[in-house]
Amino acid sequence: MAMARPADIFLTAMAPAIWGSTYIVTTEALPSGYPITLAVLRALPTGLLLLAFTRCLPPRDWLGRVFLLGAFNFAIFWVLLFVAAYRLPGGVAATLGAVQALLVIGLSNLLLGTPVRVLAVLAASCGILGIAALVLGPEARLDPIGIVAGLGGAASMAAGTVLSRKWQPPVPALSFTAWQLSAGGLILLPVALVLEPPLPALSTANLAGLVWLGLVGAAVTYWLWFRGVARIEPGAVSMLGMMSPVTAVILGWLWLGQSLTSLQICGAVVVLASVWVGQLANRPRADVPKGPEFSGASRATG
User: Fold this and answer.
1) What confidence tens digit (pLDDT) does each residue in 103-138 have?
2) What keywords sit in the KW lines (predicted)?
């Protein structure tokens, strides 16, 4: 497999960069106390809209894989993400989420046969430390349930990323995104109906926030993400996910007037440097044969 083009890396990095807006949109534009219901409204209508646009349904023999991927990438990940966000300071939750990069390296070795490279592990570890410096504050507390949820969410997204690479269907990335969003929304729907009360009447700001998180924060970004997963080594893709907390901090500074300390600026520099080194460290080697699990990658072009 040839080295990923800079354009592919840039477009894929746009996804986590946009995901960095999720926190500010959720806190400033959405009603609180309905995390699962809001996740359903983010995933299911968007997935069904994309299905109508692409006119491409998953074949019967793909349904099991699609629902498993929808669970890992959306249903389980989003629920655990909300639990961690509710029980932990944002900095602690973001730092735990960054562990995903190390988990992807291990899972890629286990499921795809990708070699574990020392430089890649060092880049991921430095990225985690950079995020800790960027977002952790003196008020950080360690709630056991929140920690388990944060690590579980990272593991879920890591598994979804690696399996999305392993199971590449012969359809464009936009159709693959539609399948998974719809499956994730369908999984979450009964959970929301059982565990959460009905939503109150939504304001214009609420609707605008849902439109942003659905059309841009889900449809566009996950299309870019799955497109990148098909073209870039999983370890390199996971390192790009560290762009999310960087964007979140920058938006907090620009939009909410939050201050930036010297330590946070240094942390951001470390994160960006780690992401760059991670792309170099996870380059496919010329002497590594292309395995059968990558055979569909060239077809999932989005």
Assistant:
1) 999 999 999 999 999 999 999 999 999 988 887 766
2) Membrane, Transmembrane, Transmembrane helix
